[in-house]
Amino acid sequence: MGSIGNNAEAEPQAFAARCAESGLLVWRCMADGSVLLAPRLPAAIYSLAASSCLGALIAEKFATGGDGQSRDLELYPGCWIACALDPSTPGGTFWVMLIPTEAGLTSPTFEAICQSAGLSVASAAEALRPFVKYTPAQKDQAVAAFIHFHESQAVRREDEAMISQFTWKLSQAYEELSLFFRLASSLNTNADPVETIQGVCDELQQILPFGWVAASFVRGAARVPGLDGRTISAGLLPCMPGMLAQAVKGACQAESHEQWVKIHNPPKTALANLAGGQVIAEPVSYGSEPIG
After folding, report:
1. Contact 249, 230 (CB under 8 A)
2. How confident is the model over 255-272, as pLDDT tens digits?
3. CB contact at 8 A, 264 and 279
4. What DSSP string runs through 123-190?
5. Distance of alpha carbon 250 from its chain centroid, rounded?
6. CA distances from 176 to 16, 279, 280 (A)
């Protein structure tokens, strides 16, 4: 029993199911002891876990037991819990493992929990008995298994995140490599220069992580007909095109590569101030002469 979540619940449910298969009684709860997820639990045990009395006991232990990472807390005579932060949520939720013993099934506190859950002591004890596998001296074995499952879950999550990041980077590298091949092909054609440069800007802006891309050619760059003094852009410009063209031209007055400023930072340059952030500027050269 328990709540059925969407895909975001797949990992917590898998963890709870793995613990259940190993005979560990676990569920996920808030710091006040209220149950969030308790799959594969018999109805009687779910009622116990969701009872106000047990929730209050767990909340009290959370309040006095530190940061929710306690591995060995006596909930009441004859019953222990182990706690761990739930890594699948930003914070405030925990995994709790209950370790009951035979002595705990006859405790007055257990009777109070059963009463709070609307269960008879006999039916509740019968439901819990399959999980009574450890004596007080052996409970560390259950805690060790719980810790192992919890830590291995964290390792698996890190591995999956690393694989996902690597896959994204590989995909990005492939797109960028494909882009450079397409650009090289387009620049080697006899197509209209303005259309070619516009296509280059569009491709760069779509593939690379830039808000906008502009290509600006200085006056006197007559070696490429139609581009002399032109500024061609793609993406969401930070200002009117004419203002950007003037700022770009002002930033591209270097006489040689040695004088060229590639990283423009506000408030040092007018271009960066106008853009409202850092701007990367790469020269377009004809021979040793920057033309744009």
Report:
1. no
2. 555 666 778 888 878 888
3. yes
4. HHHHHHGGG----TTTHHHHHHHHHHHHHHHHHHHHHHHHHHHHHHHHHHHHHHHHHHHHHHHHHTS-
5. 42
6. 42, 20, 17
**Count of other CB atoms within 10 angstroms of residue 87:** 18
Backbone angles phi, psi at 145, to 5 degrees: -65, -40
pTM of the model: 0.49
Nearest to 199 by CA among 224, 182, 222, 174: 182
Identify which of 241, 249, 242, 238 has the alpha carbon closest to the alpha carbon of residue 276. Answer: 238
Distance CA 114, CA 161 (A): 43
Is there a contact between 67 and 84 (Cβ–Cβ < 8 Å)?
no
What is the DSSP secondary-structure string of 204-232?
Answer: HHHHSS-SEEEEE--TT-TTSTT-TT-EE
Burial 241-261 (b: 16+ CB within 10 A, else e): eeebbbbbbebbeeeeeeebb
pLDDT in tens, 175-225: 666 766 666 666 666 678 888 888 888 888 887 778 888 888 877 655 666
